[in-house]
Amino acid sequence: MPEESSDQERYSIDEMMERLKTKPSPEPEEEGEWVTRDDGSKALRIRKKKRRSKQPHKEKEARMRKVKIAQVALLVVLSMIVLIGSAGLLLFLNSATYRDSIKNSIQAHTGSSAAVAQFRVNPKAAAASAISMRWPEGNVMEELTAITVTARISPGTLLLSDMKGDDIDAQQMILRLRFPQSGKPLTQQLNSSSPRDILFRKIRTKNCSLHLGDPSDRAFSISESEASIQLAGHGERMKLSINRGALLAKGWPSWKIDRGYFEFRDEKVDIVTLRLTDGKQNRGSLNLSGTFEPQNPARISKLHTTLDAFPMASLVGEELGAMLEGNLNTVESEFSNYFSFALDPKIAPKLMIDFRSSLHTGLRVREFPFLLQISNLLEDSWFATPIFTGESATGTLIRESGTISLENLYFEQKGRMALRGNISMDANKNLSGNLQIGLSEAVIAAMTQVSRLDEIFGEEDLSFRWITVKISGTALFPADNFKDLYSATSEQRTEDATPPLDAEEMFDDLTRPRSK
Q: 399: pLDDT confidence band, cut at 50, 70 and 90?
């Protein structure tokens, strides 16, 4: 059969079969040769291709597989080591041995005997149910107890010789101070080889209590205060900062704490600042600063004291404060404005202040009988409770051993009235002292026709005429002798047909309030 053109598009079945028998595809011939078998059949012998002995891409893939297998195996091994090591480390960190090392480090750095209860560590934080430190009898610091303590730590420091982290937080902190005993040691003599460094900045709490003296007879105490304390170490001082809270001192009114900062040294305690406010209305401020030496209990220390619009009642008590009402500022003085005290309980503390009434409130005087009597005589209600405005009221306040003294008093309201002299109140609230009452000439002259004020008031001095009255009674029921002085003056000026009234009846008639 003639060979068909390669362009032929259709073949019959017979043509296709014939073509397969008679004309093999040229591609296999190119790869092999036709041979005739013994039986006369033909076959195509294919030449075998030689494989290359080296295949770089195959070898690279094999190496990569081996590396990955090795890496996975190494990672598994390391993970197991880390897990086992971490478990072992946590067991060690929570062991009694590690807790004792922490306790020894605290003792070595603070010079105290320390105790740590229920100490726990994880990779992020350390905690304890309580940490307490106690110092020997020669130290003003007696005991510091921190309750429910937690601290975030740097995980890398657990394997080192120190422990670092941020501030230590305590749910509650109690600091007890004592009157130190002379000759006793300041710190514990502890043997601690190679203590680990504890590099936390401070312990802080929102509920701090500080006490001085025996619990049954405390000299003073601070309660419900936010506080932070930096423990001494590496030659540093112990430092205490407080904010808010209440200050209670034996024999003194209650005051609120605005803020305070103290530094403790071996032989001295520096009160860098202690700012107090009124215990009830939280007004004004009383500021203390200075240094005292706890190693010498009999040594009297003086703290510089200033007032800024501080209520007088918070200094002299509610009873006397009701008679002299106002806010006070200090007047600069070389010999006054101090609070002196000693750690020896036999030495009474003393507060001495040169004061001036606050510019905005002035100072009001009331409750004294002579004020009401003069008010009735002059028919002027201002004299019953006179207020000396601006800074016109000055004096010296002294509080010592339960006695409160107001000395060198000078209160003036120009054109009307002035008071000068001394008033004291003892621990039993008994009053004593002498006050000079000054009335202006114009006030006395206006009432000459109806009263004998012109006769009982003396010569003019500093634009006022004066009379001295004696103060007595108690803070709840004050008394004076103004009525007796008035009744003992000159005889009745005009004669009357009716029998004359005696002096006391005349005084009662003149001082009786009249209806308007």
A: very high
